[in-house]
Amino acid sequence: MLGYIVTVTRQIAVRLDEELVRFVDEEVAEGRARSRADLLSRAIQRERRRRRAEQDVRILTATGPDPDLEAVARSAADTPLDLD
């Protein structure tokens, strides 16, 4: 049996000021986003990753460096990020 990933989306209403709407529309028109929803979804996902990274920093700051993770951290620091 093949595995399927089902993503359920939900439509919501978002109010943005005109300047942000123009920016979003320009991003879509220039092909940097497939749609308004795509741009907003990617921005929210980036924010979620940023907050998780902040939480990791707080934990590591409180507990100090972990020798077992030093090599992983060095490797990760040299890895290009795919932010989208």
Task: Summarize the structure in words.
The longest helix has 28 residues, at about 35-65. The protein is elongated. The chain is built from three helices and no strands. It has a domain at about 20-65. With about 80 residues, the chain is mainly α. The chain has helices at about 20-30, 35-65, 70-75.
Give the helix/strand layout.
Elements: H1 18-29, H2 36-63, H3 70-77
Quick recap of the structure?
This protein has a domain of 47 residues. It is 57% helix and 0% strand.
Radius of gyration: 18 Å
Percentage of residues assigned to helices: 55-70%
Largest sheet, in brief, is: none
Q: Low-confidence segments, ≥5 residues, pLDDT <50?
A: none
Distance between the termini: 31 Å
Principal-axes geometry comes out as elongated
Helix/strand order: HHH
**Helical stretch count?**
3
Average pLDDT reading:
88
The tally of strands reads 0
Approximate strand percentage: under 5%
Please state the structural category: mainly alpha
Search tags:
84 residues; mainly alpha
